[in-house]
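Contributing new records

If you add data, match the layout below exactly. Sequence lines come first and carry their own label; structure lines follow with theirs. Keep one chain per record. Anything else will be rejected by the validation script.
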Amino acid sequence: MEQYTDDERVEDLKKWWQENGVSIMVGIALGVAAIFGWRYWVSHRDAQAEQASLAYDAFIEAVEKPDADQARQRGQGLLTDFPNSAYAALATLRLAKLAVDRGDLVTAIQRLQWVIDHAQLDELRDIARLRLARVLFAAGQATEAETLMERVNTASLTAEREELRGDLYLAGNDPAKARTAYAAALAAGGASPLLRIKLDNLAAPTADTVIAAPAPPPPDPPAQSAEPAAVPTPPASEALVTETFVIEAPEAPVAETPVVAAPEAPVAEEAPAPAAPEAPAAAPEETPAEPAPSTSGPPS
């Protein structure tokens, strides 16, 4: 086998380099540029996100103040400077709420539609769809609201979606479907007190919930005359009986008897001298009866 010398190997390497060296250098340069470009883009993205976060904080601070004009200006500036950030979608949702609060439904619809078209997160788009459906429902466009509501698929918004569905059914005079939708919203975790009130108002009547009609009030007693009613005079026999209960019977004379005090019982501890019995009360003197006249003749 023919052996390659060192000079031949060098010549082959030079030839290969002439054919592939340029592409290798270009590939290396592109790799380095890609690495540095990626790092620059990540750094720029982080800086933009930080600036957008600061702008959003300033916007929220302005929203909490009574000056709504300043809040709208800060929100619009956030949309202009950072239109592709999540903070822009959040700020637009708040701007739509401000528009609803002042009764500007047209502006609110435009803001919510912007979020649906430009938000990067599906959850933010569904939130905007649900709120836009509420605004359309308030504006009297129930059909458009129902169509838009059907596109809400986020699981965390199921309770709000079903509650809105119940409102649409109730507005369409279908209380049975409205009750079913409210029950589904409650089962999905709806904790709104208003939701419970809506469901209770549509609950089917039962024997426990039926309230009996109150009994009619008793008739008023006849008015009594101020003059006393005349008392009928009882007959003579009844008057006599009545008088027998009224007339007191004469007291029976009490015979006077001497009162003798009973001697005190002796005490077991010491034997005092027995007390002398009291002398009986003197009996009333009786007048001697006169001797009856003798019927016999004079003594012989």
